[in-house]
Amino acid sequence: MNRHLFINTSVFLIVFLLVYTGLSKLLDYEQFSADLEKSPIIPTFLVPLITFALPISEILLALALLSTRWRKDAFLVSGFLFVLFNLYLCIILYAADYVPCSCGGVIAQMSWEAHIVMNVFFILISFI
User: How many of the other CB atoms lie within 10 Å of CB of 21?
Assistant: First the structure.
């Protein structure tokens, strides 16, 4: 696969995922907030900030990926966001008694292990 095709495909996949997850959180804002409140590792006082900032950040990051000027930085930030989410998933999955899920659509049907594998894929394409 040539470099140009790889970059464009990566942009498309990451933009699709970020817009999908960002809009899902915004469209079901109350459920997203309630799920975050149940998280055993997120302090309650941070929930309102995360509930607001995360979906907006995901959508803004997707827009940055569409701009050739901001694309390289947006790939790096996307990769770090996927790393953080994967760390969160691993901690929740392997160290917590309760695993809250605010995923929507197809992603909600995936196992936690599949979430982790999917995130590793997105981490790789973000950093490559």
Answer: 21
